[in-house]
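Project standup — Tuesday

K.O.: blocked on the structure for the chain from last sprint. Re-posting the sequence here as requested.
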Amino acid sequence: MEPTPIPKEIQQVEKVAEDVPEKEETEIQKNINIEMIQTQLEEIESPKKDVLVYKKSPIETKIFSSVLAKLTGSIDSVNSVDELKAKLDENKYKVVLFDKEISSIEPNEMAELIKETPAVMFVDPITKIEDEDRALFNSVLPNVINKKQLEELVQKFI
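H.V.: unblocked you, prediction finished:
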C-alpha cells in the first residue's frame, strides 16, 4: 500500500511556514523579562522581615520592640535616620512604624526613604496633620497606643 500523496495546497502552506522566521523577542520583552528575574532574585536574596521600629526616643523604641517581640521574632529597631537608611537598604519589611516628631526628617522625606513598604506614622494627638502627609502612609495614628492596639495594628501587616 502506497502512502497517500499530499495535496499541492498543503505542500505550499508547509513551504510558506518553513520560510517564516521564528518569533524573536523584542528588546522591550527582553528588558521586561530581565527586570522580572531581577525582582524575583532580590526577593529571594533579601528576605522580608516583619517590623522596623523608629520612635522618637530609644526607650519608646525599646518598649515597642519588646511588645512586638512576643508577636513576631523578626523585628529591627533603629535610633537614627542613618540607621534607618542602612536597615532599609539591607532588608525589606512588611511594615515600618515611626514617629512624626523625629526632628531630623520630614514626612515626605520619610516616605521617600520607605518607598513601597507599608508604613504607620504616629503623631502627637494635638498635632494637626496635613492631608498630603496623611496620604503618604498606610496609617496615621495618635502615639498614645496600648499594647493590644499595637499588636492588632501590626497583625494587619504581617
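K.O.: great, moving the ticket to review. The mean pLDDT is 83. The CA atoms of residues 123 and 142 lie 5 Å apart.
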